[in-house]
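Ticket #4471: structure export looks truncated?
Reporter: QA, pipeline team
Priority: medium

Steps to reproduce: submit the single chain below to the structure queue and open the exported record.
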Amino acid sequence: YYTDRCGMKDYKKAMKYYIMAADKGYPLAANTLGFMYYYGLGVEIDYERAYKYFSMAALLGDLEAMYKTGDMFRYGYYVQKSPQAAFRLYSMAYDLLQQSDDDARCGGYILKRMGDALSEGIGIASDPSTALLFYQRAEKMFYDQIRNGDPYAQKDLERAKKMQSKLRKEID
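Actual output as written to the record:
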């Protein structure tokens, strides 16, 4: 019901089943509930509930939920803004990504956030050269994600490419 695979999109029904699965400890269900509340998919935007579900899924090892929880600390959504906590969560997601065979779902997003942190000094000292490397790796993964049908990867691909140009000028 969430993705329309059954022939009709129905966020209310999807939420019912995701809540049941999240309550049983299924991390992807908790992560998806986080997205629903974070972006207001079928419900009002509710950062408190988004945080609840993202952090639940992150604690269960979901990489996507880790970087989204990091985003909440980066921007101060529901939680107190903390660049250090954001970077810690991005780094944890990156470390787990390195050990994972499943990078197709969110690898580009994690690498882009590491690039953001290193280019903007989010919770760590700015390091343009290393940020450039993260953006280059993110670009490659975004192309893979686009080929795999990720409808949101194009926007972040463009950001990764733009940041590479900016960083090359800065480094030169």
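Status: closed, not a bug. The export was complete when the record was re-opened. Leaving a note from the reviewer for reference: The chain has a mean pLDDT of 93.
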